[in-house]
Amino acid sequence: MPHEVRALEERFHRDERDQLAGKPPVYVPFVDTDTSPGSPAAYPQKGAADFYLHRAPHDTWTNEVTLQSNRRARAYEPGQWISRIAPTPLLMLVTKDDDVAPADIALDGFNRAREPKKLVLTDGDHFFSCIHQFELSCTVAIDWFDTHLRTVEKNDSRPDQ
Fold first, then answer.
1. What is the value of pTM for the model shown?
2. Closest Cα to residue 124, out of 145, 150, 152, 94?
3. From the CB of residue 91, how many other CB atoms can be counted at a distance below 10 Å?
4. Tens digit of pLDDT for each residue in 89-137?
């Protein structure tokens, strides 16, 4: 929520000052079942909690991240460079009701990208295609990589070593 941004930014600054003074970093849950406004989780969306808390391998994954990692994630803006990646092939699998990477932002990025590119638009939230449409997502990705990696392989003019 916009009114919570100031408090969150102050937490970022306090943690940064504390670390400069030698204190350990603050850790927050990566996801949380408490998805109410003000949740300390890096990703407070219900779909994220359902996915990570019920599907992640608990012997290797811990549900925590530094507060500064959350700060850096908020600054991540891949759309800034999307028009510059061509001619690298771009495949985007976008879910219509994504609450982590909103579909309208993803579609805007896709429209600004240059060829070669392909868009696969599916129903569901951010994790839907990973769970309920896993075979479709894998098939689309494998076909895309197979097509474009073979093209690179054919055009690779480096001498054999």
1. 0.72
2. 94
3. 16
4. 999 999 998 888 889 999 999 999 999 999 999 988 888 777 788 889 8
